[in-house]
Amino acid sequence: MAKLKILKYPSPTLRKKSKAIKKVDKKIKDLIDDMAQTMYEAPGIGLAAPQVGELVRLVTIDIGEGLIPLINPKITKRSGEQEFVEGCLSLPNLEAPITRSQCVTVKGLDKNGKHVEIEALGLLATVLQHEIDHLDGKLFIDRVADPSLIRPMTKPEAAARDKVCEAGKTDECMM
Questions:
Q1: Are 41 and 113 in contact (CB under 8 A)?
Q2: Cβ contacts of residue 27 below 8 Å, gap of 6+?
Q3: Which of 80, 87, 116, 170 could form a disulfide with 64 if both were Cys (CB 3.0 to 4.6 A apart)?
Q4: Which CA distances in Å does 90 have to 27, 48, 124, 134, 136?
């Protein structure tokens, strides 16, 4: 496994649409492993392939319940509404409140190429939507209702967030 470089905004790659993965092979499985390692070391709770320069439809997520790699994820159902203060590994030390669906159903493939369907609520639903947005070239700042709500985190806030992430309390981590 290798730690990958996380692209930072305004990298043009972050604004491009990713292509579907046609075959789950060793290269894709290795990318999943490398992305997971990169996400954990960042520390973060989600990472999309475009954030590491790969324009393929792949995300890795772990909100403290184990790694969820998803290939070609697609949201098939949405309901409700919730707000979370989101951050992003590609926009370090920025955060803003974002309103998203409270419940989503996502279909895709797992690391072995098997079809999976995830019904997610709360934080997991938010992280899935955030990471899938990356696959379409969208960033959380594009979803802010009022741009004046985007704020920089101070160094003490960022350090405290990183400690929370490392302790496994994932609701305050970067996606």
A1: no
A2: none
A3: 170
A4: 23, 10, 19, 10, 15
| CATH 3.90.45.10 describes domain 12-172 | yes
* Domain boundaries along the sequence of the chain: 12-172
Catalytic residues, by residue number, are 131
pLDDT in tens, the chain (175 residues): 899 999 999 999 999 999 999 999 999 999 999 999 999 999 999 999 999 999 999 999 999 999 999 999 999 999 999 999 999 999 999 999 999 999 999 999 999 999 999 999 999 999 999 999 999 999 999 999 999 999 998 765 565 655 556 555 555 567 8
Residue 86: phi, psi to the nearest 5? -105, 150
